[in-house]
Design brief:
By secondary structure, the protein is of the alpha/beta class. It folds into 2 domains: 157 residues, 3-Layer(aba) Sandwich (Rossmann fold); 127 residues, Rossmann fold. It is built from 12 helices and 12 strands. The strands form 2 sheets. A 7-stranded mixed beta sheet has the order 2-1-3-4-6-5-10, sandwiched between helices. Helix 1 packs parallel to helix 7 and helix 8 crosses helix 12. The radius of gyration is 19 Å and the shape is globular. The model has no long low-confidence stretch (mean pLDDT 95).
Length: 320
Amino acid sequence: MSATQPTSPALFDCRDAFAATLDQVAERDNRIVIVVNDSIGSSKLGGFRKRWPQRTINVGIAEQNMVGVGSGLANGGKIPFVSAASCFLTARALEQIKADVAYTNANVKLVGQSPGVGYGELGPTHHSIEDMAWLRLLPNLAIIAPSDPWETAQAVEAAAEHEGPVFLRITRFGVPKLPRPDNARFEIGKAETLREGRDVAIIACGVMVTRALEAADRLADGGVNAQVVNMASIAPLDEAAIRAAADLGAIVTVEEHSRRGGLGGAVAEVVAGYRPCPIRILGFPGFMPTGSPKFLFERFGLTSNGIEKAAREAISLRLL
């Protein structure tokens, strides 16, 4: 008799959770509207448009105009969810995000769809590995990178209730549901400790949280006890959780983003002013080749094996 093969966990598209939750929020609050740039399909908002065509504004491929329209709607008392591919929303309309949304503290919810390398084979023009870095510079703007469908749904609810601008980073490729207690809740500005540890802290966001947990399992097999922190809220940042991680003496950060200016940079800024310790920042180095997300993750070490290796390096430096 052959041994039973372990089954792979079910994978979920966080865009489905985003769209379903937005429908629920819009059912309760008629101030909710959507503004898109011919991105109804890729944002999975076809159901919203069918139910509420009068609350759907499609400006065409005009991202700067799209953000300006969203700001105007917010000034008129609406709660606009402005949804587009993250690479185009944040790069083409950065001036409007800065001046019309962040500077004026407008109640606009920006939704960056398919961030990171979600469009893998379309190459560097469609990779969005800079979005958190340049948005993190803007005051007033909350930045959230959910890790799974549950957290995506929670983040949409929180964004709708939050008075002020929010950027939601919604992945397009499948992720498993993370194990959580029944009383788990999401809060903007608060980290989530998914696994306690004493030897090293792994701080991750978005789709990398699953890989961080897998790396912790690998480390445990070798006798290393790793803490895993889900830092979905990039801004505001849970500095207390980062200081607690620094107290362990070694940190690894991992994100589907550039190694410069994102989660790793934010963590390093806090640690430098508190208790410097070895930090390994895992992410992408810059423009990458065209390829599938799986290929790019493996090539640049954004895997459980790569995280495990980085954790061991950080620990070894702590012991020097």
